[in-house]
Amino acid sequence: EKGRYDHFMRKEISEQPTALAQTIEGRIDASEEGEPIVTDGSEAASRGDSVSTPGADGVSLEEFPPGTFADVSAIQFVACGTSYHAALYGQQLLARRGVSAQTFRAGEYAMSPAPVDDDTLVIGVTQSGETADTLESLRRAAEGGARTLALTNVVGSTAARECDDAMFIRAGPEIGVAATKTFSSQVASLGLLAERLARDVADSESEDSRQLLAELSTLPETVQRVLDETQAMEVVDRYRAMDSYFFIGRGVAHPVAMEGALKFKEITYEHAEGFAAGQLKHGPLALVTPNTPVFAVFTGRHTDKTLSNVREVQARGAPVIGVVSEDNREVIDTVDAALTIPEAHPDVAAVLANVQLQLVAYHVADYLDRPIDKPRNLAKSVTVE
Ligand code: M6R
């Protein structure tokens, strides 16, 4: 039921704090209730000792105890659409922990799979667990001897049943064709899974990853703060009748830019594209005019480089909407409009920025009176190749 909302999509955007709380529940070790573990206890840290809190492993995944992935030497992600963007995010989390992974569009992988052996872990990221291309990719990988893992929202789905392992994102049912809360729950799940993989595969743990886990444990409240903002509606009022909409970002902001554009085109029917910010001058810049707003996603990493891309498009007359931390004055003062997010770890900031972009897409589609929950030509689950 939609309750007080006009659309399931809007309801599901609002449900993200609850969905995220379910995703992380019991999966992040905490020193005391509500408090995430930082493994160097403060007293010991002040003495300069390095201490592991007894029993604290950072993540506690019932389905994947420590050592589960000790035999894995290569990781591949296969996914489509929004789930592909979540997988790209997961790949970057792993890379920063010294674990290399590759991400493939499942429609391509199913036709020409990458080489695998029995030390390869192939992770299918699929909300529904029923996407034909993703299932076919997982089957091809299994035929090649790989171990397969389904990261999915649906218990009992084909992917969950067919794969060697499954991790459930626990976002609750998603009705709107546009994936919203499941993207947030996928990336939070990938944050947890990346931690287990990094420790098992590369014996890697770091202050940065502990910080990320700490912030993941409070993500429901942080997302709620973004949802309490009304900036997206104000931005939409200013920039809603334009030729095209571009989305740019670097690092984890790149998959968020692509996801922002996918959501936008899917439900507004307006032309939108997401680019790696550094790619602009290799072609897309030719499209930039005063009638092509550019959404620039900032996470706290690569700020100077993305700002120089912002100036490039502003020089061509394009209005820039920055999605940026509320205390980043330099960016806020440079862009033409800002959608602010709470100060956060860059990998968390990416999730928060995505929530702002979901709201932008929703409000534009609503203004244009589109059938938001069932966009033309699209299905919630794509069960044909
Ligand atoms: O169920 P899946 O995650 O495998 O679905 C993959 C895509 O079809 C899906 O994410 C699609 O791109 C969404 N409609 C985007 O909002």
From TrEMBL:
Instruction: Provide the function of this protein.
Output: Catalyzes the first step in hexosamine metabolism, converting fructose-6P into glucosamine-6P using glutamine as a nitrogen source.
Q: Show the catalytic activity.
A: D-fructose 6-phosphate + L-glutamine = D-glucosamine 6-phosphate + L-glutamate
Asked whether the keyword Cell membrane is assigned, the reply is no
One Gene Ontology BP term is:
protein N-linked glycosylation
Instruction: Give a yes or no for keyword Cell membrane in this entry.
Output: no
According to the record, the residues making up region (Disordered) are: 29-56
Assembly: Homodimer.
This entry carries the following GO cellular component terms, namely: cytoplasm
Q: What is its main location?
A: cytoplasm
Gene symbol of the encoding locus: glmS_2
Write out the entry's keywords from A to Z: Aminotransferase, Cytoplasm, Glutamine amidotransferase, Repeat, Transferase
Which residues participate directly in catalysis? K380 (for fru-6p isomerization activity)
SIS domain: from which residue to which, for each copy? 65-203, 235-375
Give compartment(s): Cytoplasm
EC number, as in UniProt: 2.6.1.16
Named from the GO MF annotations, one term is: carbohydrate derivative binding
- The entry's protein name is Glutamine--fructose-6-phosphate aminotransferase [isomerizing]
